Request: fold
Amino acid sequence: MDAALLAPAAGLDAFLAEAASLLPPGALLRGEDCAPYQADASGCRGQAAAVLLPDSTETVSALLRAAARHRARLVPQGNRSGLVGGAVPDGSGRQAVLSLARMRRLREFDPLNRSAVAEAGLSLSELNRQLEPHGLWLPIDVGSDPATGGLVGANTGGSRLLRHGDARRNLLGLEVVLADGQGSVLDLTAPLRKNNAGIDLKQLFIGSGGALGVVTAASWDLKRLDASQLTLFAALPDREAALVALDAFEQHFGETLSAFEVMGAPALNATLRQFPALRHPLAGSVAGCYALVEIASAMPGLDALLQERAEALLASLHERGLILDAAFGQAERLWPLRDSLPLALAAAGTPLSFDVGLPRSRLPAFLSAAERWLTAEHPALRLYDFGHFGDGGCHLIVLLPRGMAAGYGPAKLAMLKSALYQLVADHGGGFSAEHGVGPLNAAFYRKFTCPAAQGLAAGLQRLLDPAAALGRHRYG
Ligand SMILES: Cc1cc2nc3c(=O)[nH]c(=O)nc-3n(C[C@H](O)[C@H](O)[C@H](O)COP(=O)(O)OP(=O)(O)OC[C@H]3O[C@@H](n4cnc5c(N)ncnc54)[C@H](O)[C@@H]3O)c2cc1C
Reply:
């Protein structure tokens, strides 16, 4: 179906000739110059017919009009830190990348309203660098550096989602260009926290992976920077204990609990073996899993109080056998342990990564079931888990030992993935907690999403993009 929707070669050539006349000099790349834009952080690769680098909303609109007319397909792209291949063209060489990298202005900043309107190409780190002197930030905390458009397209979460939410929760408004044939611009950027004047259309585009429109600007709800903070690392007997401890931390610290990240002991141990410069904060402990806990507040002067309350809580959890040991530490020393896990595990073999979300109350049962299943069905493979336990997000890595990857061809890997996702579904969870659908998850979307929801998504896509001019993923 995709092939039928793509431009015939003559249409693509005509589109690229028109695009060249719409774009500023040097903003249409061909051939070798496209190479940096053809892969994302998942390693998914494609081949671009061209890369288009517009510098204004008007140009994006003109490009989408031309694309619909010539039946060309454009794939919106941010900083390519996505992990499902959603921002890279397919291998046909007939899709063009629409990179928003040249649209990086901070259009508006209103410190008294705690809001900012950023263009789609402005990166999270650059936005936060500009906000820092004003004591403000956009509190999405990820190991990558997404662009504003990518934050919206992927609805990025991150390690402080427990307290601050995902991109959706921090978004006040959007500017979106539609692939409706007219290149209509939806200006929904008003930085209003209360706005019930009609249907909240911006919600349609959040997390849609560039399939329904091109985000050209986003209006963010900013937060005050933390002024008090406490970070600790705890050894726990098992994940059931982690769940009770999480509940206790929430009871004691309320909305100041910023992060509750849990990693299985095998994942931490593998990371320490891989990166000897990292130090175990609780060397000698024998634990089933570890938790990295952060408590923080924008209210200054709370450090001593947080410490006192945390010590009392840890003592009572220790008495109940729920925490074996714990240590306070600087955030800069403790977070690298958590952030190094994916890299370390990737270096230890051939990793098969899963990004699943479950009701957090079911995480322990699910993880035990997953371990039992893997031991029974694939005894030579190892399962490692880490992730955003506090919000039910869990990154699983099934590690194929070196030399075994050859025995696991694409069909066998797809079966393994599907069986594990079935286990996730049986425990009430979803196959993509953070990273979205994209080509890497398209088959699982079809298998695990309710048919009526798929039908509605496909209908919406046809309505907003009748010529299939946009995005890597077709919903129908
Ligand atoms: C080391 C590492 C750690 C990560 N940790 C996390 C994490 O904790 N939580 C999490 O949620 N994610 C995480 N990610 C995933 C990733 O960073 C996010 O998905 C990211 O937000 C994507 O932003 P980007 O600008 O790189 O977008 P891209 O990768 O370029 O694009 C992502 C998707 O958005 C679409 N898109 C991009 N720009 C636009 C636009 N202007 N309009 C419409 N659609 C657009 C693309 O078509 C694509 O489908 C991590 C990635 C890495 C590499």
DSSP finds 16 helices and 18 strands in the chain. The chain has a mean pLDDT of 95.
